[in-house]
Amino acid sequence: MLEAFHSEAGAAFAAVAHADLRQNRQSSISVTRRQSILFVTSEIADYIKAGGLGEVSAALPRALRQHYDVRILIPGYRQVLSQIGAIEEIARLPASFGIPGCGLGRGLTRDGLTVYVLLCPELYERDGSPYVDAFGRDWSDNDIRFARLGLAAADIACGGGDPLWRADLLHLNDWPSGLAAAYLTWRGQHIPTILTIHNLAYQGIFDRDRLPCLGIPDDAFNINGVEFHGKLSFLKAGIFYSSHITTVSATYAQEITRPEFGCGLDGLLRTRAHQGRLDGIINGIDPSWDPSKDPYLVSRFSAENFRGKRANANNVRKSFGLAFSNGPLFAVVSRLVHQKGVDLAISAAETIVSQGGQIAVIGQGEARFEAELRALAERHPGSVGVRIGYDEGAARRMYAGSDFLLMPSRFEPCGLSQMYAQRFGSLPIAHKTGGLADTIEDGVNGFLFGEPCLYRFMDAIKRGLETFRSRSRLSAMRKAAMQRPHGWESSASKYRKVYERACHTAACN
């Protein structure tokens, strides 16, 4: 069946599949130049983001570029095209199967990072987010849209994109780029691929009848391939065919090998772990999260002098309609979905308010949680303020002004909010899972609870309230939180080791 697949794809692949590719690649990776990394992503905070992937896509390539020639590949969404500035079209990528052809553009970020942009208006120039329309519904052609991304990444890696540049390694991210590793394998190319899982719960599941238009050979549709409970999984394809898998915290890397967190892929992930091909590397946060310099804050402060927190707290109280108070201020900055434990935060609100606390909430998500939060604010005017939506400046002032961040996530691959809060002297109160367990030291720079239930959550909140009443202990914990290392240096170093292993393995094959 693979022979039939290659015959059908011959015209599309002939220009990029060279018999001497491995020899050329091995001779090109030398001490005379830096290795070339193509970072493939469906979002980047410079132009468009839906979650933590966008933040990582903006920060990690920048942390790596002093060691590598790292470039980014992203679809040409309307938001990207309107912000990136001048784009030079450098190639045309051919149509394949049911995947339309597209232009390959090249541009630069403001600080000079090369970005390749897929120019395909019919797939990407739409209102909405990278994944859903303005009403929150998945785009009906998401399989084609992101197969185009994966196929383009494979084309570029094989020399069919930028005539002056070729990737030595692909760094893929989540299900939207998962097929890139599969396309390379089906072409018989041994180019190392790293897949980072940012959230295993999102897998890119599509019907089996989509295989022909995506160029997926029939014999790849089995347990040792792309099949997942009778359907096609882009994420499983990425996990199965990639050289190495990473995820965004050490604890989450362990959790996803167990049935309760593995989303049906725990068996394959256990196999990868046993093979030494699964690593957990915690995310960092970018340098803009600095309370001594942040332009969004009404008053700046540091770990040595955090008196400026009060001015930010008063600003938050005013903007959220809360009464002036000397009591504790709790923040919720989150997607309003079940995973984030929003129901637990809502249930805990009555006790917080009865103890003299106030709550400010910003976020959007499931309609039921948005409605329950509005009703909560109506029941407790002056004590609970809710803003549906998201505003970067308001969120930063909430981190800066709050005493505690409520983060009772049922699972959290890495989490960034707890690190933002710590950097700004707000103590996270969080479920001991994933990256929350790896970044919060209970009773030192935040509070953890072990079971995602209201009783355990309330126990952690009560410990927070007790700490608030002890100004010396509160100050010590704030200082510890603010001084915890939050940057990308350590994480980037670990990614470099993964790259080196993957390249070494590919060179030996």
Task: Describe this entry's structure for a reader.
Belongs to the glycosyltransferase 1 family. Bacterial/plant glycogen synthase subfamily. One of its GO terms (biological process) is glycogen biosynthetic process. The protein is of the alpha/beta class and 509 residues long. It has two domains: 27-284 and 489-508, 3-Layer(aba) Sandwich (Rossmann fold); 309-483, Glycogen Phosphorylase B (Rossmann fold), CATH 3.40.50. Helices cover 40% and strands 16% of the residues. The chain is built from 21 helices and 18 strands. It has helices spanning 2-8, 10-14, 21-28, 52-64, 78-83, 121-124, 142-157, 179-186, 211-214, 234-241, 250-255, 266-274, 309-319, 342-354, 367-379, 392-401, 417-423, 434-439, 454-468, 471-483, 489-508; strands at 36-40, 69-75, 88-93, 102-108, 114-119, 169-173, 193-197, 205-206, 227-228, 231-233, 244-247, 278-280, 329-333, 358-363, 384-388, 404-407, 427-431, 447-449. A nine-stranded mixed β-sheet has the order 3-4-5-2-1-6-7-11-12, sandwiched between helices. The chain is globular and about 65 Å long. The two termini are 23 Å apart. Mean pLDDT is 92; it is low at 1-31.
Tell me the name of the CATH homologous superfamily of the largest domain.
Answer: Glycogen Phosphorylase B
Distance between the termini: 23 Å
CATH first level of the largest domain: which class? Answer: Alpha Beta
Task: Say what the CATH topology of the largest domain is.
Answer: Rossmann fold
Largest sheet: 9 strands, mixed
Task: Using the CA coordinates, give the radius of gyration.
Answer: 24 Å
Task: Count the DSSP helices.
Answer: 21
Spans with pLDDT under 50 lasting ≥5 residues? 1-31
Can you tell me the CATH architecture of the largest domain? 3-Layer(aba) Sandwich
